[in-house]
Amino acid sequence: MLAVALAFGLAAQDMGKAAPASDFAYGLSEDGQGVVIQKYRGKGGALVIPAEIEGLPVVKLYDTAFYAAGWYDPAYNITSVVIPASVKLIGRSCFMGLEKLTSVTFLGTGVALGFQAFRGCTNLTELVFPDDEKALIRGGSDTFYRCRKLPLAMRAKLRLMGFDEP
Q1: Cβ-based burial of 140 (10 A; exposed 0-12, middle 13-18, buried ≥19)
Q2: Domain range 2-160, its CATH number among 3.90.870.10, 3.20.20.70, 3.30.420.40, 3.80.10.10
Q3: 147 vs 14, residue with greater confidence
C-alpha cells in the first residue's frame, strides 16, 4: 500500500497534508541553515512532518520531540508519521513510547536514528523507507526495542542495517 506509493514515486503531499508550523516548537540548526523540531504540540493522528518551516528545511527532530509524557500529551495520539527527506537526524528517544504509532514512513536516505528513537512503540507494524542499505543509520542502541509487532522480514532487514533485534 504505502510502500507501493513510494515505489511509484508519489510525492509526500500525496500521503497527506503536512502539519502546520504552529503544531511544533522549533528553532534553527547549529549552522543556521535548517530547522530543528523541538516539541510536537499538535493533536495526534496521522502526522506528516513538514519538509520546511519558514522557508528553511527541517533537518533534525530533537531528542524527545515527540515523546509523550502521558495520555494527556498530544503526541500520545500519533498513529502514523511521515518524515520528509530533508530530515537527517532523529534524536534520542524522539518517538519513544508512542503506543498508538503503527506506521513510520521515511522519504529520504541517510537518516541517523538516535538512542531509543522508537523504543516502546509496541504497535509499530510498518516501516517504509527507500530501498537503500543506508536509508537508516544506527546512531544508538535499542532504537526499535519492544517494537515486536514489526514483521519478521522487517526485523531481519533492520538487523542487516546494524540495528539491534526489536
Answers
A1: middle
A2: 3.80.10.10
A3: 147
